[in-house]
Design brief:
- The protein is an alpha+beta fold.
- The chain has 3 domains: 127 residues, no CATH class; 69 residues, membrane protein fhac (Ubiquitin-like (UB roll)); 79 residues, Ubiquitin-like (UB roll) (Roll), CATH 3.10.20.
- The protein contains 7 helices and 14 strands.
- The longest helix is centred in the last third of the chain and has 17 residues.
Length: 297
């Protein structure tokens, strides 16, 4: 969450921008130009760094949206030359432009001198409040490092061997997405919580982080109350492509599917039962034992 920068007086003034924000922002952007030269991130020694973003309290119109824009983080300490690249609506776009203009930052450096830097930003607005301002990677910036975090069972070197993004090479957003999808396709990671993100590096490039949340693996699989040969159930699981072998990644959905197959096998064999449920136990981290309990009539 960004800290409050705007005073109460400015908050009241901005209250009226819901109607007049377009004309106000046009004047704002036209009058702020940064003297040349302006550098790309790949040309500076240290990239500009955001210190604080704005907070607008009491905004009447509770609009939300996503905006991508380009701006110059001028060596004078002001943000200038704001240009919308992709936005949600005129009101949201202009709100984002005004918000970016109020960001506090440390200017970029080149050979120990402050310089101006052109940067692309992603702005998230929710109910009239700036929820996030993120520096977006641009063409020509290098990958400073590739990092794997969150892994416990799997070796980081083996994970890095699966991806193509490399430190020292130009940042390629499409390739990073492909690498992320390739890791998810292994079936070893939770698709809901695993993510990839970037941070600005000390040399103005980008550090890429693959934050991985490993799925637990199947330990022992047992049955209680099963009146037929367990091999029949295991074969049915295999035919249905449900992998509950020891060491296989375990998804809760796989347990639900396994219960459904058990019921089908019992029905086919005309075996009376009242219910099938699954009990799980994790004796050690990232290993889950499965017990299928069949209640008989």
């Amino acid at each position: 969450m960004f800290r409050k920068l705007a005073s109460a007086a400015f908050g009241l003034m901005f209250f009226s921008l819901s109607v007049n924000v377009v004309s106000a922002q046009n004047s704002f952007s036209e009058t702020r130009k940064c003297p040349q030269p302006v550098y790309a991130a790949s040309d500076v020694t240290r990239s500009a760094k955001i210190l604080e973003g704005p907070y607008f309290g009491g905004v009447r119109d509770r609009f939300s949206g996503h905006v991508r824009l380009e701006a110059v983080f001028c060596r004078t300490g002001r943000i200038t030359d704001i240009r919308i690249i992709e936005g949600s609506s005129p009101t949201v776009n202009d709100f984002a432009s005004v918000a970016v203009g109020l960001v506090r930052f440390v200017p970029a450096e080149l050979n120990w001198h402050t310089v101006s830097q052109r940067i692309q930003l992603e702005i998230e607005i929710e109910n009239g409040d700036v929820k996030g301002i993120t520096i977006r990677p641009t063409r020509g910036q290098l990958v400073e490092s590739v990092n794997v975090i969150g892994n416990r069972r799997l070796d980081a070197k083996g994970i890095l061997a699966l991806i193509q993004t490399r430190a020292g090479e130009p940042y390629d957003e499409a390739q990073v997405k492909l690498d992320f999808e390739k890791l998810l396709a292994t079936g070893q990671f939770d698709k809901l919580t695993t993510r990839v993100f970037t941070q600005v590096g000390v040399r103005g490039g980008f550090e890429v982080y693959f934050e991985l949340h490993e799925l637990p693996v199947v330990g022992a699989v047992s049955f209680e109350g099963l009146k037929i040969d367990p091999a029949l159930v295991r074969k049915a699981w295999k035919d249905a492509q449900i992998d509950l072998q020891t060491g296989a990644p375990y998804w809760p959905e796989a347990g639900k599917a396994a219960i459904r197959i058990i019921k089908q096998v019992l029905d086919a064999k005309a075996v009376n039962y009242s219910n099938v449920e699954l009990r799980t136990d994790q004796p050690v981290a990232l290993t889950v034992n499965l017990t299928f309990v069949i209640s008989n009539q």
